[in-house]
Write a structure and sequence with these properties.
By secondary structure, this protein is α+β, with helices and mostly antiparallel strands. It contains 13 helices and 29 strands. Its EC number is 6.1.1.15.
């Protein structure tokens, strides 16, 4: 491809609204352009990278015995109403009406549509198992779209769904997909971890997120420093034994703590550490008020709380709700003298506490010498806190460390979460009707592309891995007006094309400095520069990632390129 005939608009300046490297570089290098908040067009060179990523995904999906299809972007509201997600999915679901006032959703995900198809088309156990996938744009009305392709309102995704007559069959498909994802992200050259994750709005259980390690990631990974254990921080269980003090409980004492609104302020006022106080937070759990207690230096894990109650919705109670239930606002909430209408649950660490402090349910006051199960009752103790760095690893090997990660893939065992309400059934070998069992497997294609840039760039620009780069070779003719340079560059360009090498030929009438800067910015793995020794048939060959360069004779060029591509 001749660069003079290509839409490749590079920029010198960093866009004002681009905060992270991938966002900045993909715009500056001419891969994407912003249309609206969270919405981007892929320009020709960006589209080539997308297609290369897709090709790897398709190859691994084929190996995993999945079959590609293409579903609709608009989905009837009736399907979402059958599963209950028309309302529960929330404002991220983009809804609309046609001219007949029929309601539709723009596809945020496709569990409902694929289940409807299977319900209509699969009738017998003989048609199972079955795995289907598509690569398609998805739409979610993100409240705060940011970080370019990492959090958008329109994005490209590969979503796959498997259908089974037994959980044993689902387990086998899950393992195949897990391995396929491992292969995909390994082939893309990413530094990633597969971590235990929460299903969230998707439902189901037994699932893993594939996380690309990056400081700009919005998710926190808890991992062992000596084993392969890794989990999303929301899902990491706390496997820790707390020793109860042998100290005898003392008499309660109410102490004034004016202007103390936080645990840290109360601890300072009362002269103790955070670990010597009980933190109490009020939650609304499916319409019921629940007080959750943790040690002062711990944080409530709302996912664990949701799972404890098998709840559809949990959220922090408002200050008004808290005051109506307890007679106090935030800052003085505590478990003593609480109405029976408020259930009290506590993290396991609280059970071991003796003679500590807590809010007195009176503005500006706290109790000291508080002992759980002596001064108040707890209905249930459970693991309700976030794991912390330095805690024992849940697998019993090493201690927990934290890392930031970008979620690029997610595999779920959905079970009958969607098939049950949508009545997707099949007849088994005995003629009995059974509900189809499902798995779900997603990869954010455009998000993966951005994640690659986060891990593959330097101060000059992108450094694409060769298997997904938009082109393998960037051919530069430094002065196209010089006949010997133009002739040699044209000969090399023709030879590379004839040999099937993807080459971008910079034949523009631009200064050498502009061409070098653009080449570094775009990040094609191998650069061939036709310059001052063109009359001798000698060019400069430079590897973008390593920076290694050498002078090469024309006759050696193809062999050197072939050798480089085999090794990279």
């Amino acid at each position: 491809m001749r660069q003079s005939e290509m839409l490749l608009p590079t920029l010198k300046e960093v866009p004002a609204d681009a905060d992270i490297s991938s966002h900045q570089l993909l715009i500056r290098a001419g891969f994407i352009r912003k249309v609206a908040a969270g919405m981007y067009s892929f320009l020709p060179i960006g589209n080539r990278v997308l297609r290369n990523v897709e090709a790897i995904v398709r190859e691994e999906m084929d190996k995993a015995r999945a079959h590609e299809m293409n579903m609709t972007v608009l989905q009837p509201a009736e399907w979402w109403q059958e599963t209950g997600r028309w309302h529960s999915y929330g404002p991220e679901l983009m809804r609309m009406q046609d001219r007949h006032e029929r309601e539709f959703a723009l596809g945020a995900t496709h569990e409902e549509e694929i289940t409807a198809i299977i319900r209509d088309e699969v009738k017998s156990y003989k048609q199972l198992p079955l795995t289907l996938y598509q690569i398609q744009s998805k739409f979610r009305d993100e409240k705060r779209p940011r970080f370019g392709l990492l959090r958008g309102r329109e994005f490209l995704m590969k979503d796959a769904y498997s259908f089974h007559g037994s959980y044993e069959s689902l387990d086998k498909a899950y393992e195949r997909m897990f391995q396929a994802y491992t292969n995909i992200f390994s082939r893309l050259g990413l530094n990633f971890r597969a971590v235990i994750a929460d299903s969230g709005e998707m439902g189901g259980k037994d699932n893993h997120e594939f996380m690309v390690l990056s400081d700009v990631g919005e998710d926190t990974i808890a991992y062992s420093d000596t084993s392969r254990y890794a989990a999303n921080i929301e899902m990491a269980p706390v496997e820790q034994t707390y020793e109860t003090s042998t100290e005898e409980p003392k008499e309660l004492e109410k102490v004034a703590t004016p202007n103390c609104k936080t645990m840290a302020e109360a601890a300072d006022a009362l002269g103790h550490t955070l670990a010597e106080g009980i933190k109490a937070l009020m939650f609304n759990v499916d319409g019921k008020l629940v007080m959750v207690l943790t040690r002062g230096d711990h944080e409530v894990n709302d996912v664990k709380l949701k799972n404890l109650y098998d709840a559809d919705m949990i959220e922090l109670a408002s200050e008004e709700e808290t005051r109506n239930a307890l007679g106090t606002g935030f800052g003085s909430v505590g478990p003593i003298n609480v109405s029976d209408d408020v259930e009290i649950v506590a993290d396991n660490a609280v059970k071991a506490m003796v003679n500590v402090t807590c809010g007195a349910n009176e503005d500006g006051y706290h109790f000291t010498h508080v002992t759980p199960d002596h001064d108040f009752n707890v209905s249930h103790y459970a693991d309700l806190r976030f794991i912390q760095e330095g805690d024992p690893s849940p697998d019993g090997q090493g201690t927990i460390q934290f890392a930031k990660g970008i979620e690029v893939g997610h595999v779920f065992k959905l079970g009958t979460r969607y098939a049950e309400p949508m009545k997707a059934k099949f007849l088994d070998e005995n003629g009995k009707a059974n509900t189809v069992i499902m798995g779900c497997y997603g990869i954010g294609i455009s998000r993966t592309l951005a994640s690659i840039v986060e891990q593959y760039h330097d101060e000059k620009g992108i450094t694409w891995p060769s298997n997904i780069a938009p082109y393998k070779v960037h051919l530069l003719a430094l002065n196209i007006k010089k006949e010997e340079q133009q002739e040699l560059a044209e000969r090399i360009y023709s030879k590379l094309q004839d040999a099937g090498v993807d080459v971008l030929f910079d034949d523009r009438k631009e200064r050498a400095g502009v061409k070098f800067a653009d080449s570094d910015l775009v990040g094609i793995p191998l650069r061939i520069t036709v310059g001052k020794r063109a009359a001798e048939g000698v060019v400069e060959m430079k590897e973008r990632h390593s920076g290694e360069q050498d002078e090469v004779e024309e006759k050696e060029i193809l062999d050197r390129i072939t050798s480089f591509l085999k090794q990279s």
